[in-house]
Amino acid sequence: MAETLRRVLSRGGAAWPGEESTAEAGPPLLLLGAPGSGKTALLFAAALDAAGEGRGPVLFLTRRPLQSLPCGTGAALDPMRLQKIRFQYPPSTQELFRLLCSAHETPGPAPSLLLLDGLEEYLAEDPGPEESAYLAALLLDTAAHFSHRLGPGRDCGLVVALQTQEEADSGDALHLALLQRYFPAGCWLQPDASGPGEHRLRVCLEPGGLGPRTEWQVTFQPGGEMKITPWHTHAGDPSSDKGSSSRGHP
To answer: Where is this region: Disordered (predicted)?
Structure first.
């Protein structure tokens, strides 16, 4: 699944009209970032990418409707791609369980990508490790079921966004380590020095053993537009050498 995010970030967040996305889904990916770090915008950009020609629809799960479509996440927000994104809003953990367990009964084409935004809101209802493991396993099983329905050589990708806290305690670290057993690939959004009216992030993508770690700088400009540049262009920044661990927060 990291390949979808890599495509989105490498070309600056745009989903090019008429471009077909055919790469294999890859391992499930956990998208990590603080509140307001741009996780939803990046998920939506991935949804637009996966909704390209020749692919199945995208299932986007979130607890509440998006207030507005993120800016800078597609060439004029291609309406043909938007029509292929199915939003569903399970309001509780039990409703999310019910939706995932009934996925085999859903009519129509199977999704090529399953996205869940705000995992922490569902886990807050049942914060124990057993409940977290059960939800993670259920998400993987649902993606595997969709992959089976898609047919040979086609997989349903899975990306789950989880909010992190700057002052994480040992319990948070253990919780994250548990989830990473189910989601081998990871993408971290870290705050970076920002200019007036801007919100700037460092994005670190690790594809779960399928390639090298890659980094970008993402800037949300005053109008909400998303500008993306490779991190190596900021090599003079002393923060570029921070963190080199292969797992956990960079």
So the answer is: 227-250
